[in-house]
Amino acid sequence: MKRPARTTQPRKIPGELLFSIYRHHASWRAVVLNRCAISVVFFVVGCASPGDDGVAPDTSAATASLSQEVGGSSATSAKVVAQTPSAPVDPGTDSLTASEDREPDDLCPSSPVEHGYSSLEIVSGGNTYSFELYRPSSHIAGSAPLVTNWHGLGSNGSQQMSFSGYAELAEEKGFVVVAPTGIGKLWELPLIDQKGRDDVQMAAELIDLVATKVCVDLERVYATGMSNGGYFSSVLACRLSDRIAATFSVAAVIFPDDCQPRRPVAVGAIHGTDDVVVPFYGGGESVLGRMPLFELVMPDEMEKFAVEFECATTNQEAVGQQTQLTVYSSCKDGVEVQFWAVQGGGHTWPGSPVAKALEDRMGFATEDFDATRDGYEFMSRYSLSK
């Protein structure tokens, strides 16, 4: 696909600031409630809304401390307070070993994981990964869908959970969501030499492990993610198709050269045409430098999934003011491939309050749709058996 002539000047983002933003974009939490103030320095600092008595509630259990180095200077610290959809619980840390020879129980476990947030660990391939898990308060009995939520480069699971707002939607819809943190705060990808790890295997073990801690429906396991995590989500559609029913990538997608899924997987993706971090039209150049990954043309990667799954029909429709949705349908086993192209969109997560607050740095964030709500709606239509 050739890039059309640009009608507006590209946004200019200071290099040092952009690098810091890209490394930590998922750490911003800007849920503006009542008289909450937002401070933007290198990230957004949110605050909880006051209670009915005018006194802010205790949010210590939902407060994440973040530190970062900018341009080699001393670390700057801030606290990001995430407004939890239900009363938070003390997360604690439970170290669990995935390599142990055990399978998920035939019957649902007695849910040793409490409602709300839990901070856990998994050991896979000799590496220890931390992960955040959110169990909705409505989950009392019966199995719930499981969403795996993969962060971007330089971020972590806790920040991705806050940035995407998936815990809030999980509370509303009644599914379980888990957000791991990658080794070195990144995920294993094609075209990048990363030895001593197997993140796809870890993802499979993570699904099994979560199923021993909370009652989830292994027929309805989904993968979503931002940027590096968006790439990784689409990799799982190829390499973990027997465990993942559907994926939804935000701001990056890839069809690996060795993609040989065992079954068709519903694949969705969102990308902005003016993304300066992961270029929509490829070309190899990014504000982060030149890499083989950045040579990929995003619409072409999605079309490869459509070809792989033998989709017979292609339709395009406008969504709101800036978005064109391409739907590949009549595919094998009834799956669909959907690509949401945001005209003028930046490297962002549509629907996130943080993204809207930082448009001048991350690029335009459309309000045509919500990447969390619409992404889950797309994925939740599918299971391994349909």
For the structure shown, list the relevant keywords.
386 residues; alpha/beta; Rossmann fold; eleven-stranded mixed β-sheet; two-stranded antiparallel sheet; 9 helices; 25% strand; globular
Description:
- The protein has 386 residues and is of the alpha/beta class.
- It has a single domain (15-379), classed as Alpha/Beta hydrolase fold, catalytic domain (Rossmann fold).
- 21% of the residues lie in helices and 25% in strands.
- The chain is built from 9 helices and 17 strands.
- The protein has helices at residues 15-24, 157-164, 166-173, 199-213, 228-239, 298-308, 353-357, 359-362, 371-379, and strands at residues 39-40, 44-45, 63-68, 76-81, 93-97, 116-124, 127-135, 144-150, 176-180, 216-226, 246-250, 266-272, 285-286, 289-290, 313-319, 323-329, 337-342.
- Strands 5-6-7-9-8-10-11-12-17-16-15 form an 11-stranded mixed sheet, with helices on both faces. It has a two-stranded antiparallel sheet with strand order 1-2.
- The protein is globular.
- The protein starts with 14 loop residues before the first helix and ends in a 7-residue tail after the last helix.
Under CATH at level 1, the class stands as: Alpha Beta
* Dominant shape: globular
- Classify the fold: give the CATH topology: Rossmann fold
Number of H- or I-type helical stretches? 9
Distance between the ends: 32 Å
Low-pLDDT parts are 2-106
Give the DSSP E fraction (strand runs of 2 or more residues): 25-35%
Record field, number of beta strands = 17
Give the overall average pLDDT.
78
Total separate domains? 1
- Gyration radius (Cα, Å) is 20 Å
The CATH architecture is 3-Layer(aba) Sandwich
The class by helix and strand makeup works out as alpha/beta
List the strand order in the largest sheet. Answer: 5-6-7-9-8-10-11-12-17-16-15
- Helical content (DSSP H or I, runs of 4+): 10-25%
